[in-house]
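S1.2 Input.
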Amino acid sequence: MEQPNHTAAQEFIFTAFPCAWGESVLCFVPLLIIYASIVAGNLVIITVVQLNTHLRTPMYLFISALSFMEIWYTTATIPKMLSSLLSERKSISLNGCMLQMYFFHSTGISEVCLLTAMAFDRYLAICTPLHYPTIMTPTLCAQLTLSCCVCGFLTPLPEIVWISTLPFCGSNHLEHIFCDFLPVLRLACTDTQAIVMIQIVDIVHAVEIITAVVLIFMSYVGIVAVILRIRSAEGRRKAFSTCVSHLTVFLLFFGSVALMYLRFSATYSFFWDTVIALAFAVLSPFFNPIIYSLRNKEIKEAIKKHMSQAKTFFS
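S1.3 Output.
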């Protein structure tokens, strides 16, 4: 019996980007500005925390670790988006696609773990203030941060290795703005195995997201219970203000991630898939440094101090 002649795909073509040069430039310019703002904003936070000894507390060390991870999280996808917008072919190699998926998800999962660790840190600071300095030591803070990174970079590895073994011999047109699990799996030749893989990936993502959400929710239940017992309104406001930035970033990031990865059998239109992907891959990282700098009095004051010092130096 004659076997069908399949040629394995060595690259994928992104079909989500506009083909017209004018439209590509209109998308390129704001995306470049957003990416530059993300990198600059997070570098400012990291630098400010390192230069000010009074900010070297667990909360700010977690924030600087999150800022560091945000830079690499966006660097995994946005530079390729920018080059695709100006490129005529808009392609990515198979190996490049696997690497992009790995670094995007490993840094993303590391962020999820860091946000969970930050919720635990706020719980200890508000619910056990007397024991907080002896529990959340610099050593424990460093261990939690390292554990978040190890968890993040190990978790997606089996999925990536598994997907890389699949044959891609049909269409190589990827209907997305970057390489992600579901769009890539839809291009696999083995229908049955691809369907099983999609279901497994859905379950893995669901477990990761729901576990983090439950842990953060439990932390905030404890925090709210303690805040409500504080008699003065000023005391309640001050206690809750330390959590507002984290809670805002958590809702912004997890909201868009849940829409993308907790849909299971539900399907969105191509337009909404792209919008949701942009929300958690571009917009959420763009707003995070703004939220942490505008909502945090100590970071704002430190930035103002260094800006005035820079003005004095240059003048």
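S1.4 Remarks. The longest strand covers residues 11-14.
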